[in-house]
Amino acid sequence: xxxxxxxxxxxxxxxxxxxxxxxxxxxxxxxxxxxxxxxxxxxxxxxxxxxxxxxxxxxxxxxxxxxxxxxxxxxxxxxxxxxxxxxxxxxxxxxxxxxxxxxxxxxxxxxxxxxxxxxxxxxxxxxxxxxxxxxxxxxxxxxxxxxxxxxxxxxxxxxxxxxxxxxxxxxxxxxxxxxxxxxxxxxxxxxxxxxxxxxxxxxxxxxxxxxxxxxxxxxxxxxxxxxxxxxxxxxxxx
Length: 238
Description:
The structure is a single chain. By secondary structure, the chain is an alpha/beta fold. It has a single domain, classed as P-loop containing nucleotide triphosphate hydrolases (Rossmann fold, 3-Layer(aba) Sandwich). 39% of the residues lie in helices and 25% in strands. The chain has ten helices and ten strands. The strands form two sheets. It has a six-stranded mixed β-sheet with strand order 6-7-8-3-9-10, sandwiched between helices. A four-stranded antiparallel β-sheet has the order 2-1-4-5, covered by helices on one side. Strand 9 (208-213) and strand 10 form a beta hairpin. It starts with a strand and ends with a helix. The relative contact order is 0.19.
């Protein structure tokens, strides 16, 4: 579904990714873990078109998308839920969700009627968002804002969701709630690439995982394999 091959990218003259490669199969949850500054968020940004790769390939459902702008990649079926959630605070919960559907629904006639189908799907997954659909997004708790960010991505009916640091800045009890949400997405067959600072929690929900170090993939394997890898245990799971 998503193939990243020999990806190089960075900012200005600073190269952050130096040949990273990974795959995300349809219906799977793949975790990308590593230390701060290893290049995980840059990987997500390069995949989704927020920054332009300098070398390498990104294939989405068999179609090359590297070098395309973020809007075009989104229309092709990739949704990126960035670190920090980035909800539109003054807008209502429901308006934030509707913005997620903008790329694939009619611009004028029929937008609302067709969007209702997607809204209902998100509200079934996140009943709390239904309860707060008229509330300003900026007044939600951190965990609720994360639910909203994921829900907004789902509204796009994506083939793949990139979920970047969903637990960032959240209290431990809310972090557990967020990972319960990721489990529900997995049960629903949603294809996910997950970047997460809590490596142990990420491995608990993932089907496969990659460990990034210095802009490249250092170790990969199933969660069971990584849980037995002494290098990974010492650095990330101790």
